[in-house]
Structure formats: C-alpha cells, structure tokens
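User: Working on a comparison across species. This one is HTH tetR-type domain-containing protein from Nocardioides fonticola. Can you predict its structure so I can line it up against the others?
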Amino acid sequence: MESDADDRPIPLRERQRLALRAEIEQTALRLFATHGYDQVTTEAIAEAVGISPSTFFRHVPTKEQLLLGATQRGRAQILARFHERPDDEDAAASVAAAILARTSQFVDDDEWAELWRRAKASAPLELRRASLLSREERDELIAAVARRLGRPSRARQLQAGVLVRSLLAAVEYAYELWLADDGGPSLHDLTGRALDLARHGFEETAPRRPSRAAR
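Assistant: Here's the predicted structure for HTH tetR-type domain-containing protein from Nocardioides fonticola:
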C-alpha cells in the first residue's frame, strides 16, 4: 500500500523556500509595526532580509500579501477544524471551537501577536478589515452547518446562515477591538468572550429594566 502523501518528507528546496518566506513575513511585520505599513517599501524589506528585490517578488507577489497571507492560512485552518469536530456536537459549539483553535495559536507567542496587531493597525482600512472568512469559505461553512442540523430545507439553511454569520460578526468585532486596544485583553480572550455573548445572549451582562408594575 502506498504511504500517505502527508507522511513524505518535505524536499530540502521546499523547506528552504518556506523558511525564507517566513523570514520575509517576520521582518516585514517588525518594520510595519515600527514604522507603519505605508512607510515601508518592498525594497526596504528585501534589504533587511538580505535578498534582492527580484528574489523578494519570487516569494511574495505583493506587499499586501504579507499581511493577508496569515489571515488566509487561518481561514483554511478554521474550516478544517470544523470538519474535525464530532458530528453529534452542537453546531454552534463546533464553529466556536474551530475559531478558538485558531486564535489559541497566538496565546504562547505574545511578541508575534503584538507585532501582528501593530502591523495590521497601521495598515489601510481595506487590509485591517479583512474578514474572518472569505465569502466562499463562509458559504462552505454554512453548508456544512446546515448538513449537521439535519435534512436540507429552507428552514435549516436559514438557521445555519444566521448561526454562522452571527458568530463571525461577533468575532470580527472582537478582532477590531483588539486591533485598537494597545495593552488590552488578548485576541483569544476577546474572541472567547464575543463567542459566548453571541451563543448565550446577554442575560447575565445586560442590566434588567424594571417592569411596569415596579415603576
């Protein structure tokens, strides 16, 4: 029987390519965080890494990709994590667990998380507001949740869509707060709180309004 492709060793040239790409991204984050996204050129990043501009563009197609690359890899991980969850688990719990598995990767690397936060906060609005999932990925997740909920129907599709979109909206708002709050709670902590609010409501946090009889 043939061995699984995932068990095959990565060729040396590919390992070297991945290592250089990681070095370029890390260097760019440090420069963006220090000087601001718009003030850093691709030539400056290449010089800091010790490579030529032509080598830079062989590994990174655009400057924007240095910020979007990590976001796009995270999107794929969220979808993969959802599909790994037990089929009999509550769908909202599975979505939340998949998202938190992604943000938990920031917990043990405070320095990288802070560099990424400052770099993203310095970027133009269209880069800062990159969504948690692309439209195609969001639709794929909605379809997967709908299948989890039972026999396909308009009602199931509506339920799945509202569930997924409400959770994503809560997480994206937590992300915006994290970007703007220097020294505040971690992204993982804010994401967990936002998911709890979206899943369980505001009964324990919102002040109760007095009833008419008590006025």
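For your comparison, note: The CA atoms of residues 201 and 207 lie 13 Å apart.

User: Helpful, thanks.
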